[in-house]
Design a protein that fits this description.
Blueprint (H helix, E strand, L loop, with lengths): L1 H25 L2 H17 L8 H18 L9 E4 L13 H8 L4 H7 L4 H13 L3 H8 L3 H17 L4 H21 L2 H7 E9 L1 H5 L5 E3 L1 H8 L6 E6 L2 E8 L2 E11 L2 E8 L2 H7 L2 E2 L3
Parallel strand pairs: 2-7
Antiparallel strand pairs: 2-3, 4-5, 4-8, 5-6, 6-7
Helix pairs in contact: 1-2, 1-3, 1-4, 2-3, 3-6, 3-7, 6-7, 6-8, 7-8, 9-10, 10-12
Length: 291
């Protein structure tokens, strides 16, 4: 009993930090509490004597629980935008004391949570753990089931989305869609000048290795070079949600074989990433957009 009480005391010392981690990942106070409680249950069943770094172990467990919870939200895709929005921290002394509320709210307002909610689960976990809690990529990698380099890419993609997104995901996606649809139409029709007008002068197009193997250039820089690359092409591409943002996909035999992951800032395309790696495509969860 004494050992159990000591373990409970050590857990309580980490609870506030664990709730902050879970809240940033889930955007819900109640779900964050559920994730932290699950971590306690797993700790109570574990052999604590084999845990060298209890704080790190608990953070890892909470992150894995949150990742599972995020992945289980698939039904939200069928709900209108605005359903299931993140919860602001309740100002309820019976729920959170002022110190806990301050820790959980630090550097993450409701607007940020709305943007985070557009990220795919693994991107969100990688971004939160690394950028908000300084967890090294080699420790995040086993949580999201990726290599350290792939985890770094997840966080980098999430960072670009967070920096380029507005607090209104409906308006943001509408603007993204206008630019991507205009890009697609100009590319299909071979309208070089129209394409050029949509591109940032310093745009970069990068392709992963599987995309290079099927004919894509590893890297193309500059608006004129990129416009020349796409002009008269992309006839089989279709608009899609790619990792929560609007992009394009290339279909073969009814399956997505390549993703065009756009980064758009101030109405201009600043980067396109061509992704043909099947694992990365699954992670981005592309969803075809209607006409």
């Amino acid at each position: 009993m004494q050992d159990h009480d000591l373990l409970a005391e050590r857990f309580e010392a980490d609870r506030t930090n664990l709730r902050a981690v879970a809240y940033r990942m889930l955007g819900s106070v109640s779900e964050a509490d559920d994730a932290v409680q699950e971590a306690w249950l797993r700790l109570s069943r574990a052999d604590a004597s084999e845990i060298d770094n209890l704080g790190g172990w608990l953070t890892t467990v909470v992150a894995r629980v949150c990742l599972d919870m995020l992945r289980s939200r698939t039904s939200r895709r069928e709900e209108p935008l605005g359903a299931g929005q993140p919860e602001p921290i309740a100002d309820d002394g019976d729920t959170l004391d002022p110190e806990q509320a301050a820790v959980m709210a630090d550097s993450v307002g409701l607007a940020m949570l709305v943007v985070l909610d557009t990220l795919p689960p693994a991107e969100r976990v990688a971004f939160v753990l690394h950028d908000m809690f300084a967890v090294p990529f080699d420790q995040i990698a086993p949580i999201v089931g990726r290599s350290s380099d792939a985890t770094r890419q997840l966080a980098s993609r999430a960072r670009r989305r967070v920096q380029g997104a507005s607090a209104d995901p409906v308006a943001d996606r509408a603007r993204q869609r206008e630019v991507v649809q205009a890009f697609l139409a100009a590319a299909r029709d071979g309208r070089f000048d129209a394409l050029l007008a949509l591109l940032d002068p310093n745009i970069v197009v990068r392709a992963d290795q599987p995309a290079v193997e099927v004919g894509a250039s590893k890297e193309v820089r500059g608006a004129e070079a990129v416009a020349g690359t796409f002009s008269g092409r992309a006839r089989a591409a279709r608009a899609a949600l790619v990792g929560g943002a609007v992009g394009l996909v290339w279909m073969q035999q009814g399956q997505v074989s390549m993703v065009f992951d756009f980064t758009i800032e101030d109405g201009k395309v600043v980067q396109i990433e061509l992704i043909a790696d099947p694992e990365r495509i699954r992670e981005l969860e592309p969803t075809i957009l209607g006409a």
